[in-house]
Amino acid sequence: MQRETLSRRSVLAIATGCAVTGVGAGTVSGELEEMTSAETGEEDLSRDSVPILEGTVHETTAHVIDAPVDGGTAVVIGGIHGNEVAGYEAAGEIVDWRIDAGTLVVIPEAHAVAVEQGTRSGDDWSDLNRQFPEGADPESDLAQGIWDVLREYDPDVVVDLHESTGLYAGDPVDGVGQAIFHSSGPTAVETATAAADFATEQYVDDSTLAFETGPFSGPNTEPSGLLVHKAARDLDADAYLVETLSTDVALETRVKWHLAITERLVADTVFEDDPDNGHAPDVDEETADQDDDSESSPADDTDDDNGPDDADAPIAEIRPEPETGSELALEAGQSVTLDGTCSSAQTGTLVSAEWDIGATGSFDETGELLEVTAGDNGRDSIVLRVTDDAGRTATESITLSTD
Ligand SMILES: [Zn+2]
């Protein structure tokens, strides 16, 4: 495929073309946000922050998302151990989830001091996840503060996100990574198994990293005093302890695992439909992607690879000129200008637009407009990547076909 330098004339023509459709970049952004909230019911969700141990060194936040539709209550916790990064990073993303029903409470950094330090338990605390004895008061102010939130919301489901440096593989001696430990009861067992299978099928390439499930240790056996133990036995919640392997796996992958598993574990509680519909869009890239803009984008082949769970991520949009569509049928030698000017930042501003011609993984061309001439070799994909001033990215692709 040949590439030509864009001429000033075509820049002007394209800018006009975008305006003629009545949707300048600003307008598009507004419409998309509106459509997103209408489709997801976001305008009906209430989002609240509840401080825990306010004014102390251990101050942290419980985020409470309430849907107007009746449903259950789920609590998701990260950062009980401050060196288990994927757990609290995933929980931090879950704060932005949209739910259909019920209440979702997220405490992303349960042990803020430990998270800050990157240590398991901070300076002056023994292991926080041993301070929740069943049938008795929590054993520290922090444990009490967290427990007060659980008691107030009385969850049906509790998910606690952790990491381990070794693999469980049926034996906790070497580690507990790649496992979902669950409370007793048929629902918890079934849900944990389904979540493990889903995450493994969708997101695990190496079979040695397949997720397994196992029951918690029973009452009066070690380890004891885990938050999930107390949630299951004192509040009668279905409780899950999720452990990913933290060694030799990219953080991004581990976060994705936590998100996928958590989505499945809470699906019956706060999502109305089958979780396949991608309510927690980061998790399911196939279905979740920016479906919201399909009606307003003529070139809707949207592949927003940074995950629409990041509500602030920009939106990449390609408008081909003179044709429209996500697949352009061209004559060999025919030129088309791809217009990225209708891409928009949801927060901040866009700082770059780059193009990958041939979907090679290398974004060699920059600028909001790209003029390309179709070759005679069949099909070529072209990917637009936009980046905002906070470094968030989004992509969209279009296919040129001459066959
Ligand atoms: Zn842990």
Task: Walk me through what this model shows.
By secondary structure, the chain is of the alpha/beta class. The protein folds into 2 domains: 2-23 and 296-401, Immunoglobulins (Immunoglobulin-like, Sandwich); 42-277, Zn peptidases (Aminopeptidase, 3-Layer(aba) Sandwich). Helix content is 27%, strand content 24%. The protein contains 9 helices and 17 strands. The chain has helices at 8-20, 25-40, 85-94, 112-117, 141-153, 186-203, 227-234, 251-270, 285-288, and strands spanning 2-3, 46-52, 60-66, 73-77, 103-107, 157-164, 179-182, 212-215, 238-245, 319-321, 327-329, 335-339, 350-357, 365-366, 369-373, 379-388, 393-401. The strands form 3 sheets. It has an 8-stranded mixed β-sheet, sandwiched between helices. A 5-stranded mixed β-sheet has the order 11-17-16-13-14, with no helix packed on it. A 4-stranded antiparallel β-sheet has the order 1-15-12-10, with helices on one face. Helix 3 (85-94) packs across helix 8 (251-270) and helix 6 (186-203) runs antiparallel to helix 8 (251-270). The longest helix is centred in the middle third of the chain and has 20 residues, at 251-270. Mean pLDDT is 80; it is low at 1-40 and 279-309. Bound molecules: zinc ion. Zinc ion binds at residues 81, 84, 162.
Summed up:
This protein is α/β, with parallel strands linked by helices and 403 residues long. It is built from 9 helices and 17 strands.
Q: What is the CATH superfamily classification of the largest domain?
A: Zn peptidases
Q: What is the general shape?
A: elongated
Reading off the top of the CATH hierarchy, the class of the largest domain is best stated as Alpha Beta
The figure for the number of domains is: 2
Extended strand count: 17
Order of helices and strands: EHHEEEHEHHEEHEHEHHEEEEEEEE
Quaternary status:
single chain
> What level of helicity do the residues show?
25-40%
Small molecules (ligands, ions, cofactors) in the structure: zinc ion
Unreliable parts: 1-40, 279-309
CATH topology of the largest domain: Aminopeptidase
Distance between the termini: 14 Å
Structural class: alpha/beta
What portion of the residues fall into strands of 2 or more residues? 15-25%
Largest sheet, described in full? 8 strands, mixed
Mean pLDDT: 80
